[in-house]
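Researcher: I've got a protein sequence and the SMILES for zinc ion. Could you write out the 3D structure of the bound complex as structure tokens? I'd like something to compare against our soaking experiments later this week.
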Amino acid sequence: MSAKAYTRIGKFSISDVLDHVPPFTAKLIGSVVKEYLGKLVNMESHRYYCFLRSGIACVSCGLKASFFGLETHKKQKTENFHFNLYGINEAGEEILFTKDHIIAKKNGGKNHPVNYQTMCEECNRNKGHSRHVRLEKLPNSIKIWIDGELDSEVPDNKIDIEVLKNILNSLGHWVHT
Ligand SMILES: [Zn+2]
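Model: Sure. Here is the predicted complex with zinc ion in place.
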């Protein structure tokens, strides 16, 4: 989904949005809304939990996000205003930031903040379907866990998806649906 697919009515700082996201609960309450520019915005988006947990820089290229756009899909008939996160690349273009699944859903990865990482749209598009995840691309919180769970060093800083899944599962943070 490129930025052109959205209609934007305002720009907000990172803290204007993320400071108002309620604590994560596995079952979203669905009623935590906040008014921005006269529009009621759902503050419980899994994307916001991703950005809170993994940070606002792309884990792959390091581009840092700089603002949120309050936007709605052009194609949707009903307005559904939400915040999209953007950074500006070296060419001065706006780059949309996405919530990426560290372990892809088709490999058993769950919809839970522990399995999310912040990635810009360009890197997300170029992401391969490797069986390995590079350690340096994981959020720090997960790296610390992995250090604690593995006895030996990780060869080439690459961790097998199955090993990573076992570690994340042992932490009991998965949402089993
Ligand atoms: Zn990137």
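Model: The radius of gyration is 17 Å. The mean pLDDT is 84.
Researcher: Great, I'll pass this along to the crystallography team.
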